[in-house]
Amino acid sequence: MSRHDAVVVGTGLAGLTAAVRLAESGARVLVLAKGVGATHLSGGTIDVLGYASPLASGGLAPAPGGRSLADRVERPADALAELQPPHPYALVGADAVAAAVAWFKERIADGSLAPYAYAGGIEENMLLPSALGVPRPTAVVPQTMAAGDLRDGAPICVVGLRPLKDFHGALLADNLARAGTEARAVELDLVPERRADPNSLGFARAFDDEAFRAEVTAQVAARLGAEERVAFPAVLGIARPNEVWSELQQRLGRPVFEVPTLPPSVPGMRVFAVLREALRRAGGRVILNSVVGGAEREGGRVTAVRARAGLREERHEADWFVLATGGFASGGLELESSWTAREPALGLPVTGVPGPGEERFRPGYLDDHPIGRAGVAVDRELRPVDAAGERVAENVLVAGATLAGAEPWREKSGDGISLATGHRAAELVLAASMNVSSSRRMSGPAG
Amino acid sequence: MPQLRAEVLVIGGGATGAGVAWDAALRGFDVVLVERGDLAEGTSGRFHGLLHSGGRYVVKDPVAADECVVENAILRHVISDCIEDTGGLFVTTPDDDPAYGDRFLEGCRKAKLPAEEIDVAEALRREPRLNPGIRRAFTVPDASIDAWKTVWSFARGAAAHGARILNYHRVTDLHVDDGAVTGVRVRNEHTGEDLDIEAGFVLNASGAWAAQILHMAGIEDVGVIPGKGIMIAMNHRLVDTVINRCTMPADGDILVPIRTVSVIGTTDIRSADPDEIPVTQDEVDQMLDDGERLVPGFRHARALRVWAGVRPLFQDAKAGAVKDTRDVSRTHAVVDHRQRDGVDGLLTMSGGKLTTLRLMAQDLVDAMCSQLGDDRPCRTREERPPGNEDGEPYRLGSRLRKREETLQEEQLICECELIGRRRLEETMRRRGTESLDDIRRSLRLGMGPCQGGFCIYRATGILHSVDRLDAAEADDSLRDFLQERWKGVWPILYGDQLRQARLDDWIFQGLLDVEHLPA
What is the ipTM of this complex? Predict the structure, then answer.
C-alpha cells in the first residue's frame, strides 16, 4: 500500500504534464502506468487545432452549417474559442490552453535536454510537412523542425536514408512539389552499427556520434542547391539533439529541419525523457508495468486504486486521482465484442458509443464515424459525469485522449488536448487543495 | 483497334478459370484468359480456405462428397505447396443431435471417406480450446488451402505452356455471328483501351457473374444464384485442425486454421447482385456466437478481418424458385449452350466449389473437346504447376525459416507477414502493378495483425522509388489500399482490433495526414 497526495494514471503527455505540474508545486505524486505512453507514437509536435469541427451544442455530432474538418485552421487561439462543449477545449477555455503551452515550452527549454527547445504558440499555425509530404498544421514544435514551415516558400532538399524504412524522402519531396513547394530528394546509404534494419532510434543514436554526422555532412554538402533548406527524418540525436541539429545547420550552412517518421518517434521520446526527468527532480515516483483495474470508493470520493504489477496486486491511496490512460488506441477505453464500452482503470461511464443495432462506423475510411468522439464525459472542472451530467467522483479528474468530444487525429488536436487538460487538471487540484484546511494540504507553487 | 487470336478464350480468373486455362494449355490449346480484376479477386480469394474432405456433404449431397474425396487427394499431389495438411474433426456440440454422427459415419463409408470416431477426451487433447461439452468427435482428411497461391500456380503453369493471362481486362461484349460465339471485346481497366479477341471457343468460368456474361450473347434465364457467405479471420490459430460441426450444414459451422490465422465461416444468403455483398454488424454478431459454440471464449479472441464471398450456385430456371440457397447442390454442371440456346462455341461452368476446381476444369475442357471432336486427354491429375514441383506440402513456419536465413541482410518491410524488401521489390517488378492491393494478394502484405499500419507507408514509398511511379499514382494506391482495408475491418472493430485500428488512424491521419494528400 502507498499513500500520496495525488495518483496519476498514465504516462503519456497528459499524465506526465499533470504529474510534473503537481510535483513541482510540492505534491507527493505517484504515476502508475502500463508502459511508456503515447509520446513514443506522436510526432513530437504539439498540434493544438489544425482542423476544426464544432459540435452541435451539448451533442457529439458535428454542428450543421458550421466549420467542417475540411477547413484548415490558421489561428488556433481564435478557432478554439469557437468550440462548444463537450469538446475538451471548450471545457477548459482558451486561456488554459495558452497557459499550458507556455508552461510546456518553459519546462522543455529548462529541461534535461536543454538547450533543446520548442518554438511557436497558439496564435498561429505553422505548416510542417508530414513524412508523406502533406502540409500539416501544427502550433508548437521543436526548434529542430521549425525551418520546415511551408508558409515559407524556399525550396527543399529532403535527405533520405535508404536503410530507414520509416521515412521515404522521394515520396515526401514529390508530394511537396504537388502541394506547391519546390522539393527534391537525395538518398544516403549509410548504415549505423552495420545493422540491416535500424529504426529511427537506431539512427538517432548514430547521429549523436560525431563521426557519423561528419560522414552525413560530407555526403550531403556537395549535393545541395544554393537556396535549399534541408529536411532530415526526425532522427537527429536522442541524447544531444540540439547539438546535432545546430552542428548540421552550421556545417551545411543553411536551415535544417526534422520531419517526423513512423513510430517509434524520436522527438516524442525526447519529450518523454525531459518530463520524466523533471518529475524525478521534483520528487515524483513512476511505477511502470502497473495496470490499474479498480477503485475503492467512499461516498462520492475514490479513496484508493488497485493496481496489478506483475503478479502482485497493490493498493494506492491518495486524495486526488488524475486519469490519463488515453483512448481506444492506448487501452484507456475498451469496446467489448458485445459492443459495450468501458473505461477499465476506474470504471467510469463512457459516452458517445452507439447502442446495439446502431451504426458505429461508416463504410468510408474517412467518413465521420459515429463512435469517433466517444470517451469519458467531464464537467468544466474535468470531473467525470454520468449521462445525467452528475459527477460520479469528486476527487477524480480526467485528462487527455480518454475525454469525449474530440477527434484528435482528424482535428490535429491530440497533443494540444493532452497538454492543456493535463495541465488544467493539475491546476484544478492545486487550487482545490489550497481551499481546504487539511493536514495534507499541498504546499504552494515551488520556489 | 488491337486484336488478339486464341483457340480457347477463358472468361474469369478465379480458381475455375485458372484451372481451365491450365488444363487447356496442358492439352496444347492456344489459350487466352481474361479477368476483369486481379486473379482470385472474386469468390476464390474470398473463401474460408477449407480443402474439403467431403465430410460436409456426405449426408446431404453425396455426389458432391464423392467428388471431394477424389479431388482432395489429387490436389494434395499436384499443388502440395498450396495445401497444409491440418486434418479435420467433425464434432457434436451440445446443440447438435448426437444421432447425426451415425448418419455421418454411414455417409463417409459410402463415399469411401476415411473417417474415424475418436474419444472426446482424445479430441480435447488434440484441440484443447474446443468446447469441452462436445459429445462425439470424428477425424477426416480436411486440409487448408491457400486460394491465391493455388490460382497463381495454375495461371503461371498455363502461362509456361503458352497461355496469355490478361488480368484487369473486363469483357464488355461477346461477338456472336450466325449462331456461334466468335470472340469477345475486352477493355483494359488500366488504360481504358478496347481489345477484340477472336476465339475458336469461349469457356465461361465467371462463376457468380456468369449470367452477366451470357446476357451479352443474348442468353437469359440461366439460373445463377449468387449465395453470399461471410467469414471472419481470427488473429491466431485458435485450433490447429479444421473443426466442423457434426450436423446438417448450417451457418458458422466451420473453423479453418490457415497460415497464422483461423477463419470461421460461413453464412448462406441469397444475393441479387454478386457485386453488392455488404457485411452487416448483425451477421458478425451471429458468426461470433457460432464461434463461441465451437471454441468457448471466441468473443474474447481478436478478430482481424471480415469479408463476404459469393458462391456461384446454379439452378436452371425450369426447376422453379429456390428458397434456401443452402439446399442447392454444391456439385457443378457444364451448361451446353448449343443444346440449350442454339449458340455454338460457348460453354458455361456453373456451380461447384474450390475443392473440385480441377475436376470442373477437366469437365469443361472435355465438353469443349467433345464438341470439337478433339480427343486430347486431360493431364491435370499428374502434372504439377510451378512452385509445387517438389511435392512438399506447405508447413506453418516455412516463411519464418526462409526469413531467418536473411535476417541480418535486409529490411523487414511487413513484420506481421515477414516480408523482406527484396521480395517486395521483386514482386512489384514481376507483377508490374501499381496497386498495393495486388501486392497484398501476392504476398499477404498488410494482412497481419496491424493490417498495414506500418508496412503500407513503407510499401508506398518503395513502390514510388522502384518503378518511379509518380507521387500522384502512389498516393492513389495508398488511398485505395486504406479504403479496401477499412471495408474488411470496420464491422469487426472491437477489443484489440479496435485498438489496432485507432493506432493505424494515429499513424495515417495523425502523423501522415493522409486525408489531406492532394487529390
Answer: 0.95
Question: How far from each other are the two terminal CA atoms of chain A, in whole angstroms?
Answer: 30
pLDDT for residue A438: 46
Tell me the shortest Cα–Cα distance from A169 to chain B, in angstroms: 8
The closest CB to that of B471, out of A166, A171, A262, belongs to: A171
Q: What is the mean pLDDT of chain A?
A: 93
Per residue in B388-442, pLDDT (tens digit) is 999 999 998 887 888 788 777 788 999 988 899 999 999 988 888 878 999 998 9
Task: Summarize pLDDT for B157-190 with one digit per residue, the tens.
Answer: 999 999 999 999 999 999 999 999 999 999 999 9
Q: Is B384 a member of any domain?
A: no
Q: Which of A132, A339, A363 sits opposite B494 (nearest CB)?
A: A339
pLDDT at A439: 43
Beta strands A334-335 and A341-342 are antiparallel
8 Å CB contact between B91 and B200: no
Cα A421 from Cα A403, distance rounded (Å): 9
The pairing of beta strand B116-118 with beta strand A140-142: unpaired
Nearest by CB to residue B513, choosing from A136, A178, A408, is: A136
Is the CB of B457 less than 8 angstroms away from the CB of A166?
yes
Mutate to test the interface with A, among B511, B512, B514, B515 (most CBs of A within 10 A): B511
Q: Do A336 and B458 touch (CB under 8 A)?
A: no
Q: Which CATH number characterizes residue B280's domain? A: 3.30.9.10
Whole-structure pTM value: 0.93
Residue B446 Cα distances to A322, A336, B73, B269, B443, angstroms: 37, 24, 32, 29, 9
Q: How many CB atoms lie within 10 A of CB B195?
A: 18
* Chain B nearest CA to A438, separation (Å): 42
| Stretch A188-203: mean pLDDT | 87
Position A390 pLDDT exceeds 70: yes
Beta-carbon contacts below 8 Å between A and B = 143
Asked if A131's CB is within 8 angstroms of B411's CB, the reply is: no
Residue B137 lies in a domain: yes
Contact A253, A161 (CB under 8 A): no
Which residues are within 8 A (CB) of A226 and not within 5 positions of it... i.e. 6 or more apart? none
**Strand partners for B9:** B32, B202
Residue B265 is part of which domain span?
A: 75-142+225-311
Is A71 within 8 Å of chain B by CB?
no
Kindly state whether residue B56 falls inside one of the protein's structural domains.
Answer: no
* B516/A171 touch (CB, cutoff 8 Å), yes or no: no
- Total domains present in chain B: 3
For residues B12-33, give the mean pLDDT. Answer: 98
In a domain, B359, yes or no: yes
Let me know whether B493 and B405 are in one domain. yes
Q: Cβ separation of A165 and B421 shorter than 8 Å? A: yes
Cis peptide before B377 (omega within 30 of 0): no
CA–CA gap between residue B247 and residue B249 (Å, rounded): 6
Is B201 found in the same domain as B89?
no
Inter-chain touch B288–A408, beta carbons under 8 Å = no
How sure is the predictor about A437, in pLDDT bands with cuts at 50, 70 and 90? very low
Q: Which three cell numbers stand for residue B149?
A: 497461391
pLDDT at B317 over 60: no
Mean of the per-residue pLDDT values of chain B: 93
Which residues in chain A are closer than 8 Å to B408, comparing Cβ atoms? 196
- Structure confidence at residue A246 (pLDDT): 98
B381 alpha-carbon distance from chain centroid = 21
